[in-house]
Amino acid sequence: MRPPTSVRAQTTLPAVAVALVLLTLVTALGLGLADSAIAGAERTPNERRVATATADRLVAADGPVAQRANVLNGSRVDAFDGAALHEAAPATESYAVAVRLGGDSVATTGEAAGGTTIHRLVLVARTETRTVEPESRRVTLPRRATGATVTFSPGNGTAVRTMRVNGQVRLHNDSGLRGTFEIGLTPYRTTRIALQTPGRLRSGAVEIAYETPRTTKTTLSVTVDA
Questions:
Q1: The predicted structure's pLDDT at residue 112
Q2: Dihedral through CA 63, CA 66, CA 67, CA 68, nearest 10?
Q3: Predicted confidence (pLDDT) at residue 35 exceeds the cutoff of 80
Q4: For residues 96 and 109, is the Cβ–Cβ distance under 8 A?
Q5: What span, in angstroms and rounded, lies between the C-alpha atoms of 67 and 100?
Q6: How far apart are CA 56 and CA 135, in angstroms?
Q7: How many CB atoms within 10 Å of residue 173?
């Protein structure tokens, strides 16, 4: 025996209502996912564009931390911070940005928890200063030394009259050299310094400080998180 039409309608209505609610939820969820996907798709190209432009700016020959193209100056890197990053790359002002060198943080603006990261292989150049006190009249400096600061502190009649670098007279005074002098050196050859003094060279009479460059290969990473 078939149920009356009114009874069938009453039992169908709840099911239709549930179906409509489910359809609404599914539609809303679908729209939400679509919006998220569109937002993510729009965000990623912008992150990549800003990260790429920032990385290229930092490694450019005239970049704020570069010594030449793809070679960073270690001292400039140490002084670089978020404010300098914004000044060098204004496009970063609307994003959280993290600049790293190897595993070390160089500059950050905001908290870049995710986002897009661009890498560049670079060299970092630093200068080391070493000091020697010649105990004899001759001293040899290693190749790559780009300059030296020589200080003469004569005493007890041990004045140095002449200093030769690789056989050439660079400093001379008949009455004895006194004070501090800056000497330019050729980094492509070993530097041999000869000191001429009428007496014995006492300890501490001459101090030579020289600089040698050192480069290390590492990776510059720029992360931009919208």
A1: 85
A2: -70
A3: no
A4: yes
A5: 18
A6: 50
A7: 14
pLDDT, residue 199, reads 77
What predicted TM-score, i.e. pTM, was given to this entire model?
Answer: 0.62
> CA separation (Å) from 162 to 21, 102, 166, 188?
99, 47, 13, 24
Strand partners, 216: 124
pLDDT at 1: 46
Per the rule left: phi > 0, alpha: psi between -120 and 50, beta: everything else, 102 is left
- Report the pLDDT averaged over residues 46-55: 94
CB 222 within 8 A of CB 117: yes
CA dist 60 → 53, 56, 66 (Å): 10, 6, 7
As a whole number, mean pLDDT of residues 67-96 equals 93
Joined together, the tokens standing for residue 7 give: 């009874």
How many angstroms from the chain centroid is the CA of residue 49?
Answer: 20
CA distance 197 to 107: 52
